[in-house]
Amino acid sequence: MNLNGKIAIVTGASSGLGADFSRRLIAKGTIVYGIARRADRLEKLQNELGSAFHPVVMDITIENDVRNWVSDTFKDTLPDILVNNAGIGKFGAIDELTSEDWHTMINLNLNAIFYLTSAITPLMKKNDAICHIINIASIAGKMGNPNISGYNATKFALGGFSDALMKELRNDGIKVSCLYPGSIATEFFKHSGSEIHDRMMQSDDVATVLINVLEMPDSFLIDEVVMRPLFPKSAK
Ligand SMILES: NC(=O)c1ccc[n+]([C@@H]2O[C@H](COP(=O)([O-])OP(=O)(O)OC[C@H]3O[C@@H](n4cnc5c(N)ncnc54)[C@H](OP(=O)(O)O)[C@@H]3O)[C@@H](O)[C@H]2O)c1
Description:
alpha/beta; Rossmann fold; 7 helices; 43% helix; binds NADP nicotinamide-adenine-dinucleotide phosphate
């Protein structure tokens, strides 16, 4: 796909991966609708990126808001790219993880992805150009680990959703890819209650992978990418 002039939706654009995905896409000439709840962060990003970045202050776990936003926004245009990036990890032993934490993860990491993807797919089917849905899972969608069972459950589920959707939508000219990154130095670890260390990947490097996956020829589909830091643990 030639990204110049394409229309992309990026969830979780206010920080970390979503902000760097937006930066990289805008640098390629893409129009980006960047969705998140923190208006101040989105405004700051728009000041940096200019008018091609459209900030959308929205909680994507509210289904009606998502569906109304999609129908209001795409009256005269059609989206080409959807990056389902927003996600959260709440870590803890199973007998310590609260129901609230469990539901927060399911609502954002799965339910919100269903709301947006099911609303955007009919528009992509109408789009004559090849379209692309990218789901940001995690290495935690490939292997379980102690104290992250809830997060594991959502990211394994997202992998299954992506694989099914890839087979369902390919003949409609819609590519579906699932990215499985290992640890990236972002605010994610503030929410999960763990620490960033100096061997983690950088979100801008992960963003270059997103661009590479999107820029492959239309006839070429990368359905999964696993990314890991070369040295997984902190030297300290
Ligand atoms: N960091 C890692 O090590 C790592 C590794 C593998 C995969 N991932 C995945 O990568 C994705 C991005 O994470 P990140 O590392 O960039 O973390 P991050 O910096 O914490 O970003 C999370 C983003 O999600 C947004 N968000 C949270 N709740 C939302 C809601 N209800 N509605 C709309 N947006 C919401 C946040 O914005 P607001 O708070 O402004 O709404 C923020 O922009 C996640 O799916 C995560 O699971 C991360």
